[in-house]
Amino acid sequence: MAATEITKEQWAVSESYIAKIKEDNALFAIQNGRARLAHTETYGCQQNVNDTERIRGMLSKAGFEFTENAEEADLIIYNTCAVRENAEQKVFGRLGILKHMKESKKDLMIAMCGCMVQQEHITEKIKRVYGHVDLIFGTHALWRMPELLYRAMHEKGVVVDITPSDGAIAEDVPILRDKEQKAWVSIQYGCNNFCSYCIVPYVRGRERSRKPDVILNEVRNLVANGTTEISFLGQNVNSYGKDLDCDVDFSDILRMTNEIEGVKRIRFMTSHPKDLSDKLIYTIRDCDKVCKQLHLPVQAGSNKILKEMNRCYTKEEYLAKIDKIKKEIPGIALTTDIIVGFPTETNEDFKETLDILRYVRFDSIFSFIYSRREGTPAAKLDFVLSEEEIHKNFNELLEVQNQICKEKNLEYEGREELVLVDGESKTNKDCMQGRTDSGKIVNFKGSHDLTGKYVMVKITKAKQWSLDGEIIGGEN
Ligand code: SAH
Ligand code: SF4
Ligand code: F3S
Fold first, then answer.
1. Ligand 1 centroid – CA 275 distance (Å)
2. Which class in CATH covers the domain with range 179-291?
3. What distance in angstroms lies between residue 453's CA and the mean position of ligand 3's atoms?
4. Which CATH class is domain 416-474?
5. For the chain, which terminal residue's Cβ has fewer other Cβ atoms within 10 angstroms, N or C?
């Protein structure tokens, strides 16, 4: 069944609260000689980044301005992640610091939202231990933030809304994006897969797809405002459309976007191996604007562990898909996610993960040590390996992959690559930075006004995590 949408009437309520906050903020500006300032911090995945853009969109409409500096903010919002314990620990650490800040600045408002607070035991802990938090809202209540924030601004005590919903989609929430040239476009929310280690389905709800015309309209509007690179987002993006009443799947979305004039690059994440169809492989191959890059999380190499993870594919099936992709799209950049130390993983199981890395030769991997998540099936399992053994395996994994990464990057030396310039380099202030079609980071000398443009760069040196290059021309 298709997901319901938040109705115009429901959204009108949120808008009326945006107007009320705006009045408050106008008064504040007169009294203080400056606008009320909001500071947002985002943890977790790109979907959370996109959600923060919605939060900022609503705040901006309500008359807030933004600051990068939490110290000067009147409102601090943390958009949190629950996927691993360290993501949660970081937030608790920050909350401790905010307590002192609030002691010296009584009017400071502190809000927490996102996946971490969607869990009841976490919200209970915040209420119990961190009394200085004014507002808590979960992933399902994002569109209701204006009303909740207004109440928090006017009521004593913490305002909380973590009610789970059937997964309605809010289409009217305004989005304030950071960059002009690149945009995240969420096309599907939630996850139905229930991998046994993962909290996401519990905090994000069931899979629901946005309607194709709404997505394509968003892309057209973005292009009209100068965006050329579109990244489609979904926890399981390649199962897009399965819940829709119309007969449109993810490949169709890619093909239709490929036809839109002004779009130059299309990326997407994250694909689940079990839903990677031949049709999608041919679509990536045939659509000139779809970047030749695929993130395909394998998680583990042993069939026993894959089964216990509930991943719904075997090592052989995964590798057969990789073979097919490599055959159809030679040179495609492949990346993956790996979990080391799933409770029942033995050293022999782990060796099979290394075998996968050596066979596929991923361009890069995102590797994680298993983190126990309360409420997931894997949380009940006992560990076979000790913490030391798991860390030893993790380090071995990094060593094997670092070598492969370096070798893959060396293949780029001497090549000419079209690069979309992101801005100043993060590692070298004298350089600019951008990405190749395959997603590799390139640093090169150039002026700041190249930001957002495409330049041809000759790769002069391969490094461990990036490439150095020289501009040899503009876009041809
Ligand atoms: N939907 C995506 C991404 C999910 S979260 C996917 O299925 O690939 C991103 C990554 O975090 C996962 O791919 C997995 O590798 C990792 N992850 C999820 N739960 C974890 C846990 N409990 N411990 C360690 N890593 C985890
Ligand atoms: Fe988590 Fe699995 Fe869903 Fe990815 S596919 S979000 S790992 S449950
Ligand atoms: Fe984290 Fe939620 Fe994303 S748990 S990884 S922010 S979907």
1. 17
2. alpha beta
3. 31
4. mainly beta
5. C
